[in-house]
Amino acid sequence: MSVGRQALRRKVNERIRALHREYAAAQYEVFCECGRVRCNDRVVVAAEAYDELRRVPSRSLVTPAHAGGADRVVGTYDGFLVVEGWRV
């Protein structure tokens, strides 16, 4: 897993959020931020949940299957988890 890939996916997701904010979308699809090399998983997230997640910079959005044993899960949603801290 790579912190660089996680950071890149986060930037992509933040851009997706910005685009959907312009249209006041209630929910939209973003990428899993797990950092796995071949991960292309996506999840549907409510705009409100995404904004809450981003209030804490050390939190990431991952699919349930991609949460690692060292991850501290701080939120559970339909289709994704919020984990604390960057994984290496």
The tally of strands reads: 5
Task: Quote the beta fraction.
Answer: 25-35%
Helix content: 25-40%
Biggest sheet, in brief? 3 strands, antiparallel
Number of helices: 2
Order of helices and strands: HEEHEEE
- Uncertain runs are none
Secondary-structure-derived class: alpha+beta
Rg, rounded, reads 12 Å
Give the overall pLDDT as a whole number.
Answer: 87
Per the principal axes of the C-alpha atoms, what is the gross shape? Answer: globular
Kindly report how far apart the N and C termini lie.
6 Å
Strand order of the largest sheet: 3-5-4
Describe the structure.
With 88 residues, this protein is of the alpha+beta class. It contains two helices and five strands; from the N terminus they run H-E-E-H-E-E-E. The chain has helices at 3-22, 47-54, and strands at residues 27-31, 42-46, 59-62, 72-77, 80-84. The strands form two sheets. It has a three-stranded antiparallel beta sheet with strand order 3-5-4, with no helix packed on it. Strand 4 (72-77) and strand 5 (80-84) form a beta hairpin. It is globular, with a radius of gyration of 12 Å.
What is this entry, summarized?
With about 90 residues, the protein is α+β, with helices and mostly antiparallel strands. It has 2 helices and 5 strands.
